[in-house]
Amino acid sequence: MDKLLDMFNYGFMVRAIIVGSLVSLCASLLGVTMVLKRFSMIGDGLSHVGFAALAAAAAAGVAPIKFAIPICIVAAFLILRISNNSKIKGDQIIAIVCSGALAIGVMIVSMSKGMNTDVNNYMFGSILALSRDDTILCIVLSAVVLVTFAVFFNKIFAVTFDENFSRATGVKAGFYNGILAVLTALTVVVGMKMMGALLISSLIIFPCLSSMRICKKYKKVVLLSAIISIVCFMAGITVSFLKSTPAGASVVCANIIVFAVFSGISALKKIRK
Length: 273
Description:
Elements: H1 2-6, H2 11-36, H3 42-60, H4 64-84, H5 90-111, H6 117-124, H7 132-151, H8 153-161, H9 163-168, H10 173-195, H11 200-214, H12 218-243, H13 247-272
């Protein structure tokens, strides 16, 4: 217990807990909508775009997060717009973006300084990578995501379940899809430093899928997803501190365990019925 409490005496751990909890909450809320709209892998696509942007920022010597935010927002808009207005479906365009952006990022790194420590941190995540300025920026961006999601909750709900009906009733579906794109891009960029480009999408997918095993109503799924996400993050970060395991991987493993448990509970309920 003393060692567990000692975790809060380290500045980098406090920063990681604050940012990680906020990112987990944002990702879980947006994840429900993205999964229901069959865009569950958009986080993966945007994280690869973010990696390319961060590699370019490192090569140019500019602030990485501030450089990556507008690029990821534009990429999110393009993914949604192309999938809605062409024969290329959502999963296909995301696959194209994933492979293309990752290739561009690796090329930029190879032609500049090589695979340095900073780029590795963005790719695989590191709780040591969060500076004080990064923490403040992440808190501000997370607050923007949470407040915006709460304000437009009803409209997002309508667009999520029946976009065509929403348009017919006067809801500007394109506008709210755009909001979702911006919020997802912000969440991905904020979470990349700690979770890494290869693992950030798990925060969007796993809590939602776990809660869907138990709950059937949208609001209950959103609430349970948020709880699961924060609990899994705290469990993962604690294991990371105590056992010196990678933070991002530890959080994902915690989510996998919860998903397996909830899937088992769901299966037992079906057997009883």
